[in-house]
Design brief:
Elements (H helix, E strand, L loop, with lengths): L2 E5 L4 H6 L1 H10 L4 E6 L13 E6 L7 H10 L4 E6 L11 E6 L9 H6 L16 H10 L8 E4 L11 H12 L10 E5 L4 H11 L3 E5 L4 H8 L4 E5 L2 H8 L4 E5 L4 H4 L6 E5 L4 H10 L12 H17 L1
Length: 318
């Protein structure tokens, strides 16, 4: 039996992007007993990992006491392999046969490639999700019975400056689900984390009875179970965008001041759409105010609609 300690990110998006490397380890060591360490928010994504022995949600504490707590939880085990994507002291101070640590890439590359490089994997394994019966049951309860594949929209993000205007999301939804759109008559599921729910409300109100309200109602794994029943996902640069892409949904990610070459949605059926405002200008404005308004105004509805059409056409051909 192989014991693996896998330490990944506190952040939802980065944790999703690390799942491909974890999946590779599980395939390489089918007898493995795996301990996963991550932040409390992404923790549900790992609860159904094959061979999971322990899941440790690592909530930050003052004076770095969370790292001491983690070391105490792990030091008594003789690990065959430690993969530490946090490059922490814990990964160095437990007993291990082999160790692998994340280090910042010498050249710009996508985060999935950077994570794959920890074990020298090129091409890197893409993100994947292990969706359990509990998540599927929650999706069954949240989605209307018998609803056909729908349009999913993620209108919020962790920064206000990364949010495309809600009225554009509303017009895009009408365009894609109208009689001449690629998803005529489709319902529109709106997803947002609990703290962001109020910012999604104007979109829900504009959609009326067409909307499926999934805001603030699901943990990340249940959100994935809902999303993989969608025909298309369109959303801002966020952890939810990465969940959609990892779930295999055609995914359009919208980027203003972000870095799509590093954090764009990953996969054959995923595409990042950027705007017309130069990124240097956007980053200058973000440095003054992280929640500066108008930074997504350069992302045109036409470009987003075009990306959606291309992804849907590609998905139908595969």
């Amino acid at each position: 039996m192989t014991r693996i300690l896998f330490i990944t990110s506190n952040r939802l998006g980065d944790a999703v992007l690390s799942t491909g490397l974890l999946g590779h380890l599980i395939e390489r060591h089918p007898d493995a007993r795996v301990t996963v360490v991550c932040g409390p928010l992404p923790a549900p994504l790992f609860r159904a990992v094959p061979g999971l022995e322990r899941l440790i949600p690592l909530a930050k504490q003052s004076y770095a006491r969370h790292w001491l707590r983690l070391w105490l939880a792990c030091v008594g085990v003789r690990w065959d392999l430690v993969v530490d994507l946090r490059n922490s002291a814990v990964g160095r101070l437990v007993f291990a046969g082999q160790r692998a640590f994340h280090s910042k890439a010498a050249r710009p590359m996508h985060k999935v490639e950077e994570i794959g490089a920890v074990l020298g994997l090129s091409p890197p394994p893409g993100p994947r999700l292990w969706i359990d019966a509990r998540a599927e049951a929650e999706a069954d309860a949240l989605l209307p019975s018998g609803v056909p594949p729908f349009l999913a929209i993620g209108p919020t993000a962790n920064w206000l400056s990364k949010e495309w205007p809600v009225d554009r999301f509303a017009r895009l939804a009408q365009r894609l689900t109208g009689p001449d759109g690629p998803l005529p008559g489709a319902r529109v599921a709106v997803l947002a984390a609990g703290p962001e729910r109020e910012r999604a409300r104007p979109l829900l109100e504009s959609l009326g009875d067409q909307a499926i309200d999934l805001t603030g109602r699901t943990d990340p794994l249940a959100a994935a179970a809902c999303l993989r029943r969608a025909a298309l996902y369109v959303g801002n640069d966020s952890g939810l965008m990465h969940i959609a892409a990892a779930a295999g949904v055609p995914t359009v990610g919208l980027f203003g001041p972000g870095f799509p070459e590093i954090y764009g949605p990953w996969g054959r059926h995923a595409q990042a759409v950027t705007g017309s405002i130069p990124r240097d200008e956007l980053l200058r404005r973000v440095a003054v105010d992280a929640n500066a308004p108008g930074l997504m105004d350069g992302v045109s509805e036409d470009r987003v609609a075009e990306a959606a059409h291309l992804l849907l056409d590609g998905a139908h051909k595969t």
